[in-house]
Design brief:
With about 350 residues, the protein is α/β, with parallel strands linked by helices. It contains eight helices and 13 strands. It binds zinc ion.
Length: about 350
Amino acid sequence: MNKPTTITAQLLAPLVALNSIIMRVTERQGTIVAQRQRIGFITGLLWCCLLIGPMASGAELKALLVTGYDPHGHKWEETTPILEGVLQNNGKFDVEIATLSSAQEAQAFAPDFGKYNVIVMDAHGRDWSAATQDQFERYVNGGGGLVVVHNAVGQFATWSAYRAMIGIGPGGQQDGVGFQFDETTHSVVQIPPGEGVKQNGHGSQHEWVVKSREPEHPIMAGLPLTWMHTADELYHGFRGKPESVKNLKVLATAFSAKETGGTGSHEPVMVVNQFGKGRIFQLMLGHSAGAMSCVGFQAVFLRGTEWAATGKVTPTGVPGDFPSADKSSARPTVNKSS
Ligand SMILES: [Zn+2]
């Protein structure tokens, strides 16, 4: 939070020196009053730009990124800085991080959710207290945004409201309905309880093609319809209670090939859902830092977080290094130290 102050101080120090040099030179040369006024005006303008600049670029939106624990081998220490970097570097978000590494920290977690436009989850967290769960339900129900990345979809398995928020998540055949995309009818179809794969899972990590199924949705609008994702886990067999998925939209799917341990179906990889007035974006991509280095991942994560926070996405065009249909594209990993 003290970044703008630091930047301002760093920028102002050389300017103060420059200003005094200009004024000294001006005095020595006996420059006429009009010139002095002009120089004074220009330096004043510079001062204004530097003072206003850092404040004007201040983020409009506040995000709370919750992380700190994962029992399934997901390296949150590597992935969280990437998510933070994508949001923070964009200039639109001011990101705070809650690192809940122990059960005690998770139980003591009691933020003022109302301070944030969106909560982003990047871990398979331990249980929060009943009071904090209640506050969170009120927050999302009242219009708060929620973004759930990869393994965070599997946390809080017994917290029914959380499962209702994310719509679909890990489960077995009897745990509600599943979703797939049918290429023959070009439509999303629901798999009734008792049908489809017996249990959720994923095959081996490999590169796979993401296909947009809601190209008009603000998160997807303008992006290529098909793009190659860097090597990642491709989840399959997610389930949700029928009453929790009434407003669920499958934004994108990927073909889960049997040869790589998948289902032979087009599985959802991005969905949006509603909980009361709250918007939820679930991004199944993102097993590792490598998966998150995908330009496509970063683009949809940024767009999805803005959408969850505001219901809109500022048009920014397609990144020049966006992956093509047959070639993935990754950016260097963002490190805390860089
Ligand atoms: Zn994973």
